[in-house]
């Protein structure tokens, strides 16, 4: 049996406070609660203490709804659609537990249980070193990943503003500085300016930190990237398989690992919405970084008029909270698209309505 | 579908440092890590950071092995043995997530994700007020329980020395001061002396706190009892069903709730090992407190020679870490005794060997 743990690195960066840079949370006062609410939805199947359900200004729900829907469909299917495995009656090939949330700099408390990485919210790299204790956060995550009794880690993130810090890290490492967005019209010009200013203020030219990933993430990254890098380090050290569930942010964490000399197989599991986003350039990014890319489509086009689906089909939200990773797990377990979508819509009804 | 959350209140009391009072952890240096290790076994299916696997001096494993075994059997059975429900194709009657661990005064860190109740380890009531901030701990637990989107809470504990503080609280409330033990020869004389001294030092005669449960738990209780009381308060306020998974400690928490004026139905789900322990007087205690008692037998007598079972059959360990609660969940889901025992032995092999 393959024991799979889903880990969600939840944190924050002050970059999210830049007007117009993220749709993760309808307005700034709400945005700070987004990672807490995402953690609760993933853990409990509903917001449980956080004062808001994260939806975009147009009403598109957080990708946590997709992730929880995928997990619930997976759990319901176990032993049935998985069927019997070939090893003499043992049921099901994969065991996937409730996700474990890592507090990698949550700005507001959550009622979801968390493993603390003693991380503070990340700073805006235009003002301050983004993550002064990036190495310590990374190392705590490594210790955790080394100790988990599992065969495979599926790692996701929730950090508003995180696509911009990911872009900055990719640039500092000299990688393709792709950038996705939770907004249908990606404010790429704004992000490019923020990244350019951040690199400039921190004294980094493009590729200047190619041999020093610690410097890249400390200078212009965020605590979630440091945490995911550390998880990858720990997993690889223990021969645990790694699936990075997400888009450009998880790719940036993979880039940190690659520039750290990690050559192990790494998989990037993302949504079809990221794959359809040219600015994310996810296929190219995955190829650059030697990541096996898996794209999963939750089949929203069969119900395009639903508030849980229409925003995604229009290019909003796209990915996050391990959506691509959990969709891949459900797909791997034989959950069909119709059932998957039904489960996601069920979570939406329960969580948002 | 019934959504059930298993909550584990994990904490400590300096009462556990009294020589000879507990078998939870083979020696004092190890004992402080017992709740952390229990939390990890329940969450991950194995110790994941804690430096020890809790076993008694004779090698009997922590009841966390029973609880995790019951949950794994339950998860494997879902959709299969539960069969189809009557509501038109929805699978399975009950959804049980990975347990949520509450840090109610952990003395050592754990890698299991936790919800912090901002609780310190409890003091020895012969020296100091046991839990000065009991009311605040209780209230934080209440807020959590109120916010969880579930239909039923199954609540357990891990706190070495907790049977003695439970006995003290029962005495302070004027209830039957029953006491179970993790030791085959319950040191009832020692516990009686500790409780008598504690009540004396704290100025409480038997029953003196019958109208003031807050005083009882603050004076002679422990932070786990305060937390469980708070969970019951919150669950009852939200019409969430409550199952107390344990023995005399959970009964003491129920006593706090009853003396707090809570008249809602409460169930006490315990192991057959507690039911067979005359000193625990669990049937009488349940009757006194108007608790519906459910006793589950994991069927160890069919494999009496195994290191995972023989200690329990000889009266060691008996209960803890929500063993009775999780065994009841597995039984309710139709998991047969043979399968349950196999699952527990499988966890033992993985965790202890």
Quaternary structure state of the chains depicted: homodimer
How much of the sequence of chain A is in beta strands?
Answer: 5-15%
- Give the number of domains of chain A: 1
| Largest sheet properties of chain A | 8 strands, parallel
Per the CATH scheme, the topology name of chain A is Rossmann fold
Summarize the structure.
The first copy, chain A, is of the alpha/beta class and 353 residues long. Chain A has 14 helices and 8 strands.
How would you characterize this protein structure?
The structure is a homodimer of 353-residue chains. In chain A, strand 6, helix 9 and strand 7 form a beta-alpha-beta unit. Mean pLDDT of chain A is 92; it is low at 79-92. Helices cover 41% and strands 13% of the residues of chain A. In chain A, 62% of the residues are buried. The first copy, chain A, has one domain: Nicotinate-nucleotide-dimethylbenzimidazole phosphoribosyltransferase (CobT), large domain (Rossmann fold, 3-Layer(aba) Sandwich). The longest helix of chain A is centred in the middle third of the chain and has 15 residues, at 223-237. Chain A is globular. With 353 residues, chain A is an alpha/beta fold. Chain A contains 14 helices and eight strands. In chain A, strands 1, 2, 3, 4, 5, 6, 7 and 8 form an eight-stranded parallel sheet that branches. At the A-B interface, helix 3, strand 3 and helix 4 of A face helix 3, strand 3 and helix 4 of B.
């Amino acid at each position: 049996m393959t024991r799979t743990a889903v880990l969600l690195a939840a944190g924050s960066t002050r970059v999210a406070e830049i007007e117009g840079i993220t749709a993760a949370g309808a307005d700034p006062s709400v945005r700070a609660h987004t990672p807490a609410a995402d953690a609760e939805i993933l853990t409990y199947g509903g917001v449980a203490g956080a004062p808001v359900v994260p939806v975009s200004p147009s009403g598109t729900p957080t990708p946590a709804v997709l992730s929880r829907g995928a997990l619930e469909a997976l759990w319901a299917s176990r032993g049935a659609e998985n069927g019997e495995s070939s090893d003499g009656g043992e049921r099901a090939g994969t065991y996937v537990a409730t996700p474990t949330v890592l507090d990698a700099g949550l700005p507001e408390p959550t009622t979801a249980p968390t493993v603390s990485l003693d991380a503070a919210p990340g700073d805006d790299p235009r003002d301050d070193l983004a993550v002064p204790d990036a190495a310590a956060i990374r190392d705590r995550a490594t210790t955790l990943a080394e100790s988990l009794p599992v065969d495979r880690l599926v790692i996701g993130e929730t950090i508003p503003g995180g696509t911009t810090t990911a872009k900055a890290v990719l640039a500092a490492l000299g990688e393709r500085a792709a950038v996705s967005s939770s907004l249908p019209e990606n404010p790429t010009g704004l992000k490019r300016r923020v990244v350019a200013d951040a690199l400039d203020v921190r004294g980094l030219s493009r590729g200047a930190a190619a041999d020093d990933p610690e410097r890249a993430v400390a200078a212009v990254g965020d605590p979630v990237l440091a945490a995911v890098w550390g998880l990858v380090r720990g997993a690889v050290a223990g021969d645990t398989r790694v699936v990075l569930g997400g888009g450009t942010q998880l790719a940036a964490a993979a880039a940190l690992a690659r520039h750290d000399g990690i050559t192990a197989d790494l998989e990037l599991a993302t949504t079809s919405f990221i794959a359809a986003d040219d600015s994310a350039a996810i296929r190219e990014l995955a190829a650059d970084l030697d990541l096996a890319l898996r794209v999963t489509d939750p089949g929203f086009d069969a119900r395009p008029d639903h508030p849980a689906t229409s925003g995604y089909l229009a290019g909003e939200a796209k990915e996050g909270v391990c959506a691509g990773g959990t969709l891949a797990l459900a797909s791997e377990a034989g959950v069909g698209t119709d059932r998957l979508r039904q489960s996601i819509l069920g979570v939406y009804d329960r969580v948002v309505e």
